[in-house]
Amino acid sequence: xxxxxxxxxxxxxxxxxxxxxxxxxxxxxxxxxxxxxxxxxxxxxxxxxxxxxxxxxxxxxxxxxxxxxxxxxxxxxxxxxxxxxxxxxxxxxxxxxxxxxxxxxxxxxxxxxxxxxxxxxxxxxxxxxxxxxxxxxxxxxxxxxxxxxxxxxxxxxxxxxxxxxxxxxxxxxxxxxxxx
Length: 180
Fold this sequence. Notes:
Blueprint: H1 2-7, H2 9-31, E1 34-35, H3 36-43, H4 47-59, E2 63-66, E3 69-72, H5 74-91, H6 99-125, H7 130-153, E4 157-160, E5 163-166, H8 168-171
Antiparallel strand pairs: 1-3, 2-3, 4-5
């Protein structure tokens, strides 16, 4: 199972986002096209870390190199915009709502994001095998649980009786920093 997890694309992307790649992604988003040296200066990452994250972002097709410039791919733009939206939404004061309503609203937000991504995929690719997509989505749901288990090991959350509880450590961290 551990070997499968390491090969899973969602897991790779999530781990990548925790390893300084967000700095690179957002710097490219801000500049649209940027040279390697300028990008490294902005991110202030050590060269080896910077190059690993840059290569990983290219491998998962979030960024591409055009001549001497790095730029976001359409999926990279989507991820960067999603991160900005997440940061903006999560910094607002959350209303007090019943737990059952909160989970329903969260599920609806996620479904809306999925629908949006499906239409983006349709526009770019021109087709979508919905049965295959549903099957893969079910497989990827197990990764969500594994990621939460990793955060539990790091002391951010506690998982108990089907509930995930935030611990003090998560409240001390800005959500935009949770990936770093």
